[in-house]
Amino acid sequence: GRARRGAEPGPAAGSQPLPAEGADTKTYLWARYHEMKKLVYGKGRLRALGLPRVCNLLNPAAIYANNEISLGDVEIYGFDYDYTLAQYSNLLHSMIFNTARDILIEQFKYPEGLGKYDYIPGFAIRGLHYDVQKSLLMKIDAFHYVQLGTAYRGLKPVPDEEVIELYGGTQHIPLYQMSDFYGKGPSLKQFMDIFSLPEMTLLSSVIDYFITHGIEFDQVHLYKDISDAIRDVHVKGVMYKWIEKDLEQYILHGDEIYAVLNRLVNHKKKLFLITNSPFSFVDKGMKHMVGKNWRDLFDMVIVQADKPNFFTDRRKPFRKLDDKGSLQWDKINQLEKGKIYKEGNLFDFLRLTGWRGSKVLYFGDHLYSDLADLMLRHGWRTGAIVPELETEIRIINTEQYMHSLTWQQALTGLLERMQMYQDAESKQVLLEWMKERQEIRSLTKNLFNPQFGSIFRTFHNPTYFSRRLVRFSDIYMASISCLLNYDVNFTFYPRRTPLQHEAPLWMDQLCTGCMKTPFLEEMVHIR
Fold first, then answer.
1. 160 an active-site residue?
2. Catalytic residue among 73, 82, 180, 306
3. Where is this region: Disordered (predicted)?
4. How far is it, in rounded angstroms, from Cα 194 to Cα 196?
5. Residue 230: its pLDDT value, please?
6. pLDDT cut 90: percent of the chain above it
7. Could you give the count of Cα atoms lying within 13 Å of 467 in the half-sphere of its Cβ?
């Protein structure tokens, strides 16, 4: 028939022949399984197939492209400050957690027993969603499905069956419940910045305390109280004071920031800074990293910008600060080099500078507050700073990860190709394979984070975070210092990753040299 046109199906080279009618399919299935396992785990076989060459080529200091971009076309570089120019040590997370916890106890009159909870490094990851009404912290994929095994109420996992029941018999979260453009939906909140790690851990700790002690609580009030306590740590300047007192302890890789900025200026690039942090805080940090004359490198500096409103709201005019950080009352008709400005809005910024379109490249760590509007509404090029990338790539480069992923893919291919065998014994074999596949997926997930896995993957699908990363950034990297590894005229080309219809072969077919169209012979009976 039509399905067979252009192909002459036959057994794959090096594989077991298809079982004759009435033959023992169970034996055939296990033969295929062991043949595949030998190919994956046999001495030197992966190297012979070229697979480990992918391993260890992933460089944590590389820049990765979602969209083609030539730095030679970029004339103006813009930067956020926190977690973009200034990278902070993890000690800061403990301080934020402890201070917000104490605010809950002392000001919001939460139980004193919460004082026994300490920050748990590595409990949460960025990009998680929190369902306020259900008190669930969970990871969601790009298709709005909850990754089973990653839903937590408090500090304890919620059984998969309960998660499915809570969402009406499905893992899917309807679009209307999902977070809005800025990650703040009606019932689901998405935690997108690195500062949210202590907030998620505090939220989980407080819920754990209430559940453990049988204390009823209102989910909405609890979420708001914790959000307010975390906000107070930032808004009231407590966090700024810690960092200013010990810049050496809190700020990482400062010397590399000077190298990046100085090189750009030497190549006649214009630089600007837009941050939500106050001037005195930014000034001390930049003097520590870059030197007392750091402002000479920038054409303009904008502080307390109130992003993302800075990018969408036209109402706030710019205000000038003097060298001591005091407000001036002048009407701003131009933005002068070396001056410090407060608040303002992007529309006035564009009008006064003329810096539009793809000649501008802006870097930030928050996909929504820093990058989304600039890319989608104003056509700027954008770079996402993702510090977690360094750790994740080091894990991907390990032998354990490579073997686990390769075998998982091979086993998945076997499951798909062998599912036409539906006798009782074959079904049992397939069930065993499915169980093994699930165990491997869990082990692979745990390599990144025991609770939530990778920030980029929910098993095989991209995460909701990944989807936004690809949508809102032209390039992404672990830190700004990665720019030092590239020429200022370098062009980044995204890899052509295959679409599903462009990559029909599974690992078991590639390994055995089978280059025919999948299912052509095995599934002809259903056509």
1. no
2. 82
3. 1-20
4. 5
5. 96
6. 73
7. 14
**Range of lowest pLDDT (67-76, 244-253, 378-387, 450-459):** 244-253
The residues that bridge with 491 in the sheet, in sequence order, are 70
Is 423 known to be catalytic? Answer: no
Nearest residue to 116 via CA among 101, 100, 94 = 101
For residue 447, which of 385, 396, 410 has the smallest C-alpha distance? 396
Domain final residue pick, 355, 382, 409: 382
Assess contact for 516 and 3: CB atoms under 8 A.
no
Nearest to 228 by CA among 368, 110, 364, 83: 110
The answer to whether residue 458 sits within a structural domain is yes
Structure tokens that stand for 227 in this block: 């959000």
What's the CA gap between 78 and 9, in Å, rounded? 57
Please indicate if the annotation marks 373 as binding a ligand: no
Task: Assign 338 a pLDDT band (cuts: 50, 70, 90).
Answer: confident
In a domain, 1, yes or no: no
- pLDDT tens, 249-275? 999 877 899 999 999 999 999 999 999
Any domain includes 444? yes
Q: Estimate to the nearest angstrom the gap between the alpha carbon of 312 and the chain centroid.
A: 24
Q: What whole-number distance in Å separates Cα of residue 514 and Cα of residue 13?
A: 6
**Tally of domains in the chain:** 3
Q: Is 508 within any annotated ligand binding site?
A: no
Residue from 80, 131, 225, 373 carrying the catalytic annotation:
80
Instruction: Tell me whether residue 365 is annotated as binding.
Output: yes
Tell me which DSSP letter residue 56 carries: T
Task: Indicate which CATH number applies to the domain containing 273.
Answer: 3.40.50.1000
Please answer whether residues 163 and 146 qualify as being in contact, where contact means their C-beta atoms are separated by less than 8 angstroms.
Answer: yes
Structural domain boundaries enclosing 426: 26-60+389-509
Strands 475-477 and 64-65 come out as antiparallel
- Report yes or no on 297 lying in a domain: yes
